[in-house]
Inverse folding.
């Protein structure tokens, strides 16, 4: 006799399972223009040499915040598009090359952490740099290009940039780095580090270091994962079988469980399920227990609360498996193979 038990995963609010090179052509820049439009050549300032735009609007040193949700596959990826203007501090007449320096960022919630993989790309030229990055720009041979409109003394157009931010959240749970649900946040800071001079000259008319901040928030819901349930072959003599399995939960101290049998119940109070072989059936009972000693004879389509989850994501096949299922088949039935598919639904409990 064979009892088939399928894995089932349920989660609350989600499912579990980043020399002068001449003028730039008009097609190489965006249509956005950053301040200052009429710079004061007699009073050079860092904000004349560098500014950051987002959606056509000049900013100070803060990009608009990112608020993100846990993705269904646990593979977090998000982008932030913006623009950078880089030229000389004396009127923006010439473009200035630059690097972007950053230590990267880790999102935190108390002792729980989400280290992010971050890269920045100048989209017009396909140049990308991964964070952390700490290379100073000392000449024209730097990662990114400015966009001056020499010889006109006016602010030049911005160039498009994109931040790509990623994290393999399920891997972080397995590693014990991401340890709780809730809002994880942090601020990514990167510095626009100009060459000392604008492109092709040594006038010392650039050299701006301009910090930019991006606040990031990622909300992790309560998650649950069931593993270790596979087909069970019952002992042909005793009609019984036992298997250990695991229910892991993040952000919940308990979980509830509900069974669903392909053939439903057959008996008083729904406590007897059915193994079927054509038109013949054999009754069986299912008992669940956890590592705390909680023990329940399970009835069809009824929910059971108060189970204690494992705190280890990878608990299958290890000593910390927290659940045991025991099947007891009644006697009777002709010779043959009898089976049922039992599905267990689990859900975090608060």
């Amino acid at each position: 006799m064979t009892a088939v038990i399928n894995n089932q995963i349920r989660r609350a609010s989600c499912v579990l399972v980043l020399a002068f090179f001449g003028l730039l052509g008009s097609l190489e820049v965006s249509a956005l223009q950053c301040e200052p439009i009429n710079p004061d050549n007699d009073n050079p300032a860092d904000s004349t040499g560098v500014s950051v735009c987002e959606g056509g609007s000049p900013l100070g040193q803060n990009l608009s915040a990112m608020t993100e949700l846990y993705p269904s596959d646990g593979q977090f990826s998000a982008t932030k598009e913006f623009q950078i203007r880089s030229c000389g501090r004396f009127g923006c007449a010439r473009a200035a090359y630059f690097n972007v320096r950053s230590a990267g960022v880790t999102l935190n919630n108390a002792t729980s952490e989400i280290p992010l993989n971050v890269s920045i790309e100048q989209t017009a030229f396909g140049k990308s740099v991964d964070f952390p990055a700490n290379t100073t720009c000392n000449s024209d041979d730097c990662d990114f290009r400015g966009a001056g409109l020499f010889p006109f003394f006016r602010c030049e157009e911005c160039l498009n940039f994109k931040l790509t931010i990623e994290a393999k959240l399920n891997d972080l749970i397995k590693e014990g780095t991401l340890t709780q649900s809730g809002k994880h946040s942090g601020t990514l800071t990167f510095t626009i580090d100009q060459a000392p001079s604008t492109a092709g000259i040594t006038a010392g008319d650039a050299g701006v270091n301009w910090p930019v901040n991006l606040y990031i928030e990622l909300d992790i819901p309560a998650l649950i994962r069931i593993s270790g349930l596979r087909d069970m072959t019952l002992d042909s003599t005793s009609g019984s079988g036992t298997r250990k399995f695991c229910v892991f939960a993040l952000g919940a101290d308990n979980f509830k469980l509900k069974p669903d049998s392909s053939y439903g119940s057959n008996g008083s109070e729904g406590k007897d399920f059915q193994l079927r072989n054509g038109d013949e059936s054999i009754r069986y009972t299912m008992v669940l227990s956890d590592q705390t000693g909680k023990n329940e004879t399970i009835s069809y389509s009824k929910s059971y609360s108060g189970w204690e989850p494992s705190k280890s994501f990878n608990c299958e096949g290890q000593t910390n498996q927290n659940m045991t299922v025991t099947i007891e088949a009644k006697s009777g039935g002709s010779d043959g193979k009898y089976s049922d598919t039992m599905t267990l639904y689990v859900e975090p409990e608060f």
Notes: Confidence is low (pLDDT under 50) at residues 1-33, 149-155.
